[in-house]
Amino acid sequence: QLDVAESGGGLVQAGGSLRLSCEAYGRAFGNYAMAWFRQAPGTEREFVASISGSGLCTAYSDPVRGRFTISRVNAQYTVYLQMNDRRHADTAVYYCAGKRFSPATLASDYSDWGQGTQVNVSS
């Protein structure tokens, strides 16, 4: 089981960049796939990006592909989400989540969640 906590949210102007951090401490962190999800008011939680335990495999949803980058530094128990070319539609609460072994794109497949960090994009 992981203890997960996100940070780095805030306000950014459209077209700007922001990096979110996720500290996910637990035994054998390298055996956990990690992912970022987001949820805007009145919407369901949406998959953003995932990364395998080794960091070798990544996946992105269509709206963020080419703009966002997920990475991890296992020695620091940390996962990052670099968000470039931010758009107003990216405004949401962003969540970091983990699961054992293989990555997935469904929120229900992840067992360990942070509390979320708010990201606002001004027009």
Structural commentary:
The protein is mainly beta. Helices cover 0% and strands 50% of the residues. It contains no helices and 11 strands. The chain has strands at residues 3-7, 11-13, 18-25, 32-39, 46-51, 58-60, 68-73, 78-83, 92-100, 112-113, 117-122. Strands 2, 4, 5, 6, 9, 10 and 11 form a 7-stranded mixed β-sheet that branches. Strands 1-3-8-7 form a 4-stranded antiparallel β-sheet, with no helix packed on it. A hairpin with a 4-residue loop joins strand 7 and strand 8 (78-83).
Strand content: over 45%
* Radius of gyration over C-alpha positions, nearest whole angstrom: 13 Å
Oligomer: single chain
- The ordered string of helix (H) and strand (E) elements is EEEEEEEEEEE
Mean pLDDT: 97
Reported for the largest beta sheet, the result is: 7 strands, mixed
Number of helical regions: 0
Q: Extract low-pLDDT stretches.
A: none
What structural class results from the helix and strand content? mainly beta
Report, as a whole number of angstroms, the end-to-end distance.
Answer: 39 Å
Shape: globular
Helix content: under 10%
Per DSSP E runs of 2 or more residues, the count of β-strands stands at 11
